[in-house]
Amino acid sequence: MCGIVGYVGSQSALDVVMAGLKRLEYRGYDSAGVAVQADGGLAAAKRAGKLVNLEKELMERPLPAGATGIGHTRWATHGGPTDANAHPHADNAGRVAVVHNGIIENFAVLRAELAERGHDLVSETDTEVVAHLLAEEFSACADLAEAMRLVCGRLEGAFTLVAVHADAPDVVVGARRNSPLVVGVGEGEAFLASDVAAFIDHTRSAIELGQDQVVELRRDGVRVTHFDGTGAEVRPYHVDWDASAAEKGGYASFMLKEIAEQPKAVADTLLGRIDPSGSLTLDEVRIGAAELREVDKVVIVACGTAFHAGLIAKYAIEHWTRIPCEVELASEFRYRDPILDGRSLVVAISQSGETMDTLMALRHAREQGSKVLAICNTNGSTIPRESDAVLYTHAGPEVAVASTKAFLTQLVACYLVALYLGQVRGTKWGDEIQAVIKDLSRISVQVERVLETMEPVRELARSLADKDTVLFLGRHVGHPVALEGALKLKELAYMHAEGFAAGELKHGPIALVEEDLPVVVVVPSPRGRSVLHDKIVSNIQEIRARGARTVVIAEEGDEAVVPYADHLIRIPATPTLLQPLVAAVPLQVFACELATARGNEVDQPRNLAKSVTVE
Ligand code: F6R
What we know:
By secondary structure, the chain is α/β, with parallel strands linked by helices. The protein has three domains: 3-246, Glutamine Phosphoribosylpyrophosphate, subunit 1, domain 1 (4-Layer Sandwich), CATH 3.60.20; 254-447, Rossmann fold, CATH 3.40.50.10490; 455-597, Glucose-6-phosphate isomerase like protein, domain 1 (Rossmann fold). Helix content is 36%, strand content 23%. It contains 18 helices and 24 strands. The strands form four sheets. An eight-stranded antiparallel beta sheet has the order 3-2-4-1-10-9-11-14, with helices on one face. Strands 5-6-7-8-12-13 form a six-stranded antiparallel beta sheet. A hairpin with a 2-residue loop joins β9 and β10 (189-193). The longest helix has 23 residues, at 430-452. The N and C termini lie close together (11 Å). The site of fructose -6-phosphate has 15 residues, from α9 and α16.
């Protein structure tokens, strides 16, 4: 949420910052702004709306050239998406410019104090107070990093701040508490950004910034200190994906590209996790086997799509390990005083590794003495750093706001965790584990096959573009798949879409069914527990009898559904528990196509942003 870029070097700061912002626009697109040091002062521009509005503004009124600058793309929290509320924010003399991601919870008190001291604050944001406080502190100490440390000491909440001062030439300062910020180090230049994608064209050499740290960027290096001024250990790492991973690569949208990348993402997530004897070797899971044998409860915390992955994981964990598993929305978790102790294993699932709700949930779990295992797609992000262990998904960067390939890889990681627990606890025999691994390793090709047969799904989606409502039904692991299908449609097509457990329909929701209402039904394999299959076939008949237009997702060879399917989408046969890996794919394609047919921009759905770093 909110994208931030900072640059010091010898290139045009404006070019570097604008290119970085383009890569970070997925984090928010309510407004954008930049500030550069030039001619002994600061020059700034900002505009409400997408980055393209700022680009137009800069074409019409170019800024003077400078080699030090900052930029921001906003997801609005305090104050609407207007020019005045756009970042950077400045002090009254226009000597400081600051950009911010997060929420400063005590901003009202600070604002009142500043007003009393004669400052004139012109926006509705919480950020503006920081510019004024920085100006005050800098006038006393003439050191921007020190001024930032002093200001941070007075702030409550979550924040990433990046600032420049006209009287601190060739210096950019950043600070971080509970919000992401990474440093890029190049030859004679340095970068700050919310995400490495912003500087990957320039350097792969990055530094993780820890909690409550301030970084000072100069051309010849970076210096990291804690908020109390003491030196901090610098933790460099190499970014191992290249710039093309953050480009559309010929696709009309990142979402289409990411849907197409799923076979590879699934295969990559399995890579290196099975030893030659067929046993699982999850080296990153640094929680000892003895401790895992003591676990008496698994609690999964996650949000949105990652939560749906968790709901599916519950079926596998309980079935394969017989350990009770709860799945909680991370945003609700700590407020209901969950029962946790040293024998609870908490699994935090997050693509970005920065979702504040999930982060707060895992902190709460660790405070209760529980071990936390993160399933995450982003190296070096906060959630894995604060967890006891991490299993990385290898989906590569996910840029489209709606999660697709990350979801499939989260599922793979969940299955691996479930099998691993079964392995160390001895609830699954080695040959049983190997059989599931074999099934999992076929999934990549099966997803590929699903993707090759999506044209009728796209056609169907286009034909439904003028509908108001679509319902989704599933049973067993198909239920979370139905929830995920509905979420994708809501967030992309802005339609009323709801997912239900098919058996629950008759307890109320069936009243929604009317003539020609599209209802998508995820049908379990008839080869698995046939009772599940038979029950859902009855459910399809019930809704069809009431006029619904049935869109049936069923395994190849399942002939029992044919008479009741107005539209039939075939998926390859998989074991019951693994079916979500193939069943989710047509639903992603369906939502993406339907949204496009309605004229929506699928990569940047309205009101949303990726990486939700506020609670
Ligand atoms: C929906 C979507 C979101 C995220 C959720 C959690 O398509 O992408 O629901 O799944 O915001 O994000 P992460 O996984 O980054 O914690």
